[in-house]
Amino acid sequence: MTPSIADLFDRMGFVGHRDSCSFTFASKVFGRLLESLCGTGSHEKQLPPLVWGLCEDQQRLLYETLLAGDGNERGTYYTASDRLAGQLCRLVVELGLKPKWSKRQGSWRVCGRDVNDGFLTSRNVRRAESPGTLYRLTVTDFPSVMAGRAGRFQWVGVSRVS
Q1: Which of 85, 92, 156, 161 could tie 108 with a disulfide, CB 3.0–4.6 Å?
Q2: What averages of pLDDT result for each successive group of 10 residues across the chain (162 residues)?
Q3: How far apart, in whole angstroms, are the C-alpha atoms of residue 95 and residue 126?
């Protein structure tokens, strides 16, 4: 079991059961609070709306705590919730990391990596004719956006900053 989670529960005064890979406690009050904020059942998990108002240090602490619970040492988080997987991608971006996600056998794998990934325009960009409609993206105040396909994301420039 990850010591940081055990330490948190000790500081909060929760008495429960511990083993090598879990920590459990019972509280109707906290149970109802967590269900109302974070959903019920593994497929309905979500981050509470208050997460998006937290400062970066608090968001990073939340992300690290999530990884300590349902993640691994390589920074990959696992969830059955479609909504939580999407929210974790957003959280990863807000922390300045580059998200990568995939779904296998009903479980999402979400990981965040440093943005410096060796992307080279000369090697990774190509031109292609498009038979369909093209759209010109305009954003306010920032000359790049994160775009992705098939669970892989990349920072890209936009055609105009307004």
Answers
A1: 85
A2: 67 80 81 92 94 92 90 91 93 84 92 69 68 77 73 70 56
A3: 29
